[in-house]
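[audit] Reproducing an earlier prediction to check determinism. Same input, same settings, fresh worker. If the tokens differ from the archived copy the diff job will pick it up downstream; this log only records the rerun itself.
[audit] input (414 residues):
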Amino acid sequence: MRILVVSQYFWPETFRVNEIVSELTSRGHEVTVLTGRPNYPEGVLHPDFAADPSRFSRYAGARVLRVPLRPRGTGSLRLMLNYWSFVFWGCVKGPWLLRGQAFDSIFVFETSPITSALPAILLKWIKRTSLSMWVLDLWPDTLKAVGMVKTERQLRVVGLLCRFIYRRCDLILGQSRAFVEPIRRWAGPDVRFRYFPQWSEEVFDSPAEHLTAAPELAQHANHFNILFAGNIGEAQDFPALLKAASLTRHRRDIRWLIVGDGRAAPVVREKITQLGLTETVFMLGRYPVERMPAFFATADALLVSLKADPIFAMTIPGKVQSYLAVGKPILGMLDGEGARVITESGAGLVAPSGDAEALARQALALADMAPDTRSHMGESGRRYGSKHFRRESLMNQLETWLAGLLRLQSTRAS
């Protein structure tokens, strides 16, 4: 198949769309990627790309076409400009870059913003082909949950935009089964929806016991290390995490390690100092995804959290699959689907979203647990992840669905 992938984010930014592209090309499909200029998460143009953009014109055999994009920078206004600059240039320059090319399918990778699908809708009309979209971030509900949409009128306006986008998709994939109802609320009951969860990145395929420990964590080697990895933002509820760390500070053997970056990182850093947690909570900065297995191998428990909100209860954070893959106990502070996966797999202990006291109790319980018991938790999680989130099986499904759309399109044309 000739597949066009439209995504605001792409390599060297680290998102699962990169693995979708490499997997499709390895299976013999001709893949073209329409994306922006890499600037996530720092908010400035990736220095290697700025030095030599030509190095980033091909990825795993796929051709990569990039449109101008205003970097995210800092602040809500610059973020909105970043979102809409991709829409504008994707619609203006995208068709020109793709002129004369035919495609059997267009695939949209949709983590915020959903507006990144608008150039794909235009290209669907121009190329007369099918459009599928993988929804990882559920708009407009997520915007309300993080406070970016504050009134019901604003919510309705964004909802109408979502309705316009959803109804022009031939297939919508959702990273959680719980997404089907809110998507149908905007798209209508006839929308073709399929459950398509995330998987662990390829770098996490080796179990933790086979990995080399990260030297950056050597100073924490004699402690019980609870490690959070990933985006530091509003959705992760760091106020509650820091409160839980404060409640366990009497245990000098417990340390909370934060590996990652995000828009809330400066505030979190300031709060750690204000709360007197500099000997308990350590922000280690952001590292490439290729380094993360070494950090996971050094941790005693891996932490995942989401704010208390109905929309987040529908979500399975992508880090859960990666945590499961390395076979380490998981400590969660979340509700709904994410909590279900951790509990059902036997991979760890969970506290309700926003309940810092319960999270502190679960952290103490893990720290006091026999090492063999924690090892059993990790192994149970690894088996569950292999059964339910196996990358090869999921890619087989995606390939089958895209081929089905092509057959349906051919039938309608004949």
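[audit] rerun output stored. Observation attached for the diff report: The chain has two domains: 2-199+390-413, 202-388.
[audit] end
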